[in-house]
Amino acid sequence: MPLPRYKQINTEVTPYYHCISRCVRQSYLCGKDTRTGINYEHRRKWIQDRLHRLTQAFAIDLCAYAVMHNHIHIVLHIAKGRADSWTMDEVLLRWRMFYKCPPVVQRYLDDFDSVTLEELTELQSLSVIYRERLQSISWFMRLLNEYIARKANKEDECTGYFWERRFKSQAILDEKALASVMAYVDLNPIRAKIATTLNNSHYTSIQYRLNAKRSNKVPRFLMPFYDGKHENKVSLPFDFSDYLQLITETLTAEKSQSSRIGAKLPSRLLTKLGMTKENWQLVTSNFETLFTGPVGCPEMMNNFAKCCHRSCRPNVTNAQKYLS
User: Fold this and answer.
1) Residue of 30, 42, 145, 181 with fewest CB within 10 Å of its CB?
2) Among 61, 105, 99, CA closest to 81
3) Whole-angstrom Cα distance, residue 10 to residue 167?
4) Statement: residue 228 has pLDDT above 60
5) 19 and 168 in contact (C-beta within 8 Å)?
6) In this predicted model, what pLDDT tens digit does every residue of 182-195 receive, in sequence order?
7) What is the model's pTM?
8) Where are the domains of the chain?
9) What are the beta bridge partners of residue 84?
C-alpha cells in the first residue's frame, strides 16, 4: 500500500524532492509511438511550458526536469519562507492564474473597495488556504498532471486516466543525493537514446540552461546555481560550470565504456562531494533502482524516518555503500 504523502514529504528536514509521473500502461502518450506511428511529440512542449508557468506562481523552484516519452522527472525545491512574505493580494492573484476563484475574490481583485468587512475576513481565510497550496508539491503536481491529462484527452476525443494515479516522490537529503539525482535526470534522455548530446536533449532543464548560457542570460524558470556573488540568494549548493563539467565527463566515460570518469580533467565537484568516480557513475546510472524512497547518507535517512514517523528506512544499505 502506498505511503501517505506526509510520510514522504517533510520540509522541516529537506526542501528538495525528486518527483516522477508515468503515463498509464507506460504508453507513448508524450512522444512518438513506434507501434502505431502516431506522433505526440508536441505534448512534451505542453508539459515544459506548464512547468515553467507553475514556477512563476508557486513558492517552488524547478531544479531539474526531463520530459520523456512516457514519463517525466522533476527535481523540486520548496521555498517555504518565500510564500510567507506574500501579501494577501499577491496570494489571490497567483492562485487565480490557475483557478476561477469564488465571486468575492473576483470582485475584490477588480475593485477592493466593493467588499465588506465580513467578506474581507472570508478573503483572509481563503488566502491562508491558497498560501499553503502554493507551497505544496502535491498541488504543484496536481495542477501539472490534471492540465496535461485534460488537454490530451480532449485532443484524443476520449476520457479516462492519462497518468498513473499517484506521482512518486523521493526526499533528497544531502548534496551528494542532490547532485546525483540532477545528473540522473539530465542524462536520462541520452541514456534512453532519444537524444545524443546535452544540447539536443529537448524538453530538459540542461538544454534550457545551456541555451540561456549561450545567450548570456539567466535561465528564467530554473533555480540558479551558486555563483559566489550573492551569498543571501537561494541557489543550488554548487557551481554550474563544475556540475556541467562533471556530467559531461560522466557521459564521455559511458560512451567510451570506461569507468575512469574525468581521468584527463579531474572534477572539482566530485572531490567536493567526496564520492568515488565508480560510485558516482553507478548511482547516477541506477538512481531509481538503488533508491526507492528517501535518498541521502544513512544519518540523514535515519533522521528523515524519525521525523516522518516511518518504521523502516528503505535502501539504507545502498546509502551506506555509495553515499556514506
Assistant:
1) 42
2) 61
3) 16
4) yes
5) yes
6) 999 999 999 999 99
7) 0.93
8) 5-79+136-322, 83-133
9) none
